[in-house]
Amino acid sequence: MIHPIPNGTRDVLPDEMRELRAITEAMRGVFERRGYGEVWTPTFEFEDVLRRGETGVDPAYRVLDDHGHVMALRPDMTVPIARVVATRYATAEPPLRFSYFAHAYRGVRPHRGQMREFLQAGIELVGAPGPGGTVEALTVLCEALDAVGLRGYRIALGSAALYPALLATFGVAPEVGEILLGALAARDLVRLEREVEGRGLDGALVRVPQLRGGPEVLDEITGGEADGLRAIVEDLPAHVAERIVLDLGLARGLGYYTGSVFDVLDPALGEPLGGGGRYDDLLGRFGRPLPAVGFALHVDRLHLALAGEEAVAS
Amino acid sequence: MTRPALTIAVPRGALMRETLDLLDAVGVDTAEVRDNDRKLLFGDVGIVTMRPSDVPTYVEAGAADVGITGKDVLTEQDEREVVELLDLGFGPCRMIFATVAVPEGEPDPAAEALRRLGVMRVATKYYRIAARYFEETGRAAEIVEVKGSVELAPLTGLAEAIVDVTATGATLRENGLVIREEILTSTARLIANPVAHKLKSAAIDELARRMRAAYKPSAPIAGGA
User: Is the CB of B3 inside 8 Å of chain A's CB atoms?
Assistant: First the structure.
């Protein structure tokens, strides 16, 4: 008999599981060696606690408990770990290092590499400000990807604060800035250019977010965000720096990012393998203001990229 | 022969000829594509041909690095994660709301259906654009999705109105339909896969730069009704 399972979920059978396990064990070794202790948190939490993160990603699945409280399946692990830090490590001396291998839940259009229930692997480094903390996170990220066996990957590095700073530099009104940020987030460069030209704004608002490439792209801009990215790139160990592609238009979907953001890209897959960035304000919303940085990788996509790289190599 | 730097998704149909002209103008040899109408994949020059509505699918998945398709298709499939790089200007058309022509003094059938029955039926190939448009304009519409010859629907009583694209309005006129409202205007766009946009940035920027230089604004969209 055939019994259905919900849209966006799937079964993992032993052949695939062995390959997934090899990936997660390789990363677990790196995280452990780097001092990132593994944590578990509840799969479902009180919705108002999750919403405190102001991620911009609403929980997709909700349930009521026996007291009528609304609980939701977590859309990521960063917010639950922020809660853990504020409640269980309220007085602990930073920096704090955590890693996780956990399922998260989102109401996405399911496709290979993005189910509605999906396994994430990641770290959070709490209490280590940029650029040093960011450099550590990027270094651990590359070590984890190397341990998994990926060869062709690149890290696109940008800053969530760069475009807002640019808008402020040119004195763009907040409501116009929202429109431009909306076009950028939708990756609609035609609309971005039309809005900027139609309002007689500076062409840099179109040009700068399209700058991608080596450290030389930072020569085209000035200001604190450029200096911040430059400081990170200069401090990175060589084997990490060679993986970096600067992307001054990088905008990540989650609302809590404050500074550097990054996406993990591999030529073998048409979408990012994961990403992360700085979220210096998130812990404050849970009552323990500490700067933080972290990343999350989609284990399924790491697997797909590995298979894709193997296919190209053979 | 070296592998081409980019795989380009080329739309078959109305946008194909001008797409190939543009590719010739930016230095991609399209002679083989023009000579062979049945072949779909031209590996030597990195061209794959497909229906315009499939272009975002291939580009989003990275099966093609860049592609050319209409803004109408991109608007209908706006959940696709692709980078919209350039308005290429050609292939202008309008997305319109049309109903059958009625003699002077008789009510419009769609308005009449809304007034008496509370909901109008609208046939279209563009389900999401139509649904969003009537939601935004506060009208109750039942969207009837059809795959071809949308003009037939109001003539046979399947629907009271249609939402469709038109370049000249000729087909609408021939079938006794009148454009009542314009929803959006569309032209061909250059799109890119978000990962390729970063990892092949030099090749994609160069292609976009050359296409921008070759840009010729097309004739204004002909009036419809």
Answer: no
The ranges assigned to domains in chain B are 8-92+187-213, 93-185
Q: What is the complex's ipTM, to 2 decimals?
A: 0.90
- CB contact residues (below 8 A), chain A span 142-161, against chain B: 154, 156
Residue B164 CA to its chain's centroid (Å): 10
Q: Do B198 and A154 touch (CB under 8 A)?
A: yes
Distance from CA of B70 to the nearest CA of A (A): 13
CA-derived radius of gyration, chain B: 20
pLDDT digits (tens, 9 = 90+) for A43-83: 999 999 999 887 777 788 999 999 999 999 999 999 999 99
CATH of domain B93-185: 3.40.190.10
Per-residue model confidence as pLDDT tens digits over A233-290: 999 999 999 999 999 998 766 567 889 999 999 999 999 999 999 999 999 999 999 9
Residue B219 has pLDDT above 80, yes or no: no
Count CB pairs under 8 A between chains A and B. Answer: 55
Collect all residues of chain B within an 8 Å Cβ-Cβ radius of residue A263: 198
Chain B partners of A212 at a C-beta cutoff of 8 Å?
Answer: 197-198, 201
Over residues A178-222, the pLDDT tens digits come to 999 999 999 999 999 999 999 999 999 999 999 999 999 999 888
CA distances from residue B164 to A23, B50, B76, B94, B123 in whole angstroms, order as listed: 49, 21, 12, 8, 8
- Residue A312 has a pLDDT of 85
Task: Tell me, yes or no, if the two domains B8-92+187-213 and B93-185 fold the same way.
Answer: yes
Here the tokens at position A35 are 């001092």
Query: Is residue A271 within 8 angstroms of chain B, CB to CB?
Result: yes
Residue B128 and residue B135 in contact, taking contact as beta carbons nearer than 8 Å: no
Asked if B61 has any chain A CB less than 8 Å from its own CB, the reply is: yes
Residue B223, pLDDT above cutoff 50 = no
CATH classification number, B8-92+187-213, choose in 3.90.25.10, 3.20.10.10, 3.30.420.40, 3.40.190.10: 3.40.190.10
Residue B182, chain A, CB below 8 Å: the answer is no
Residue A6 falls within a domain, yes or no?
A: no
Q: Is residue A4, in this structure, part of any structural domain at all?
A: no
pTM of the model: 0.91
- The span from the CA of A86 to the CA of A81, in Å, is 9
Provide the shortest C-alpha distance from residue B195 to chain A (in Å). 6
- List of long-range contacts for B20-25, beta carbons under 8 Å, 24+ apart: B22/B68, B22/B88, B22/B90, B22/B211, B22/B214, B23/B47, B25/B210, B25/B214
Q: What is the mean pLDDT of residues A112-123?
A: 95
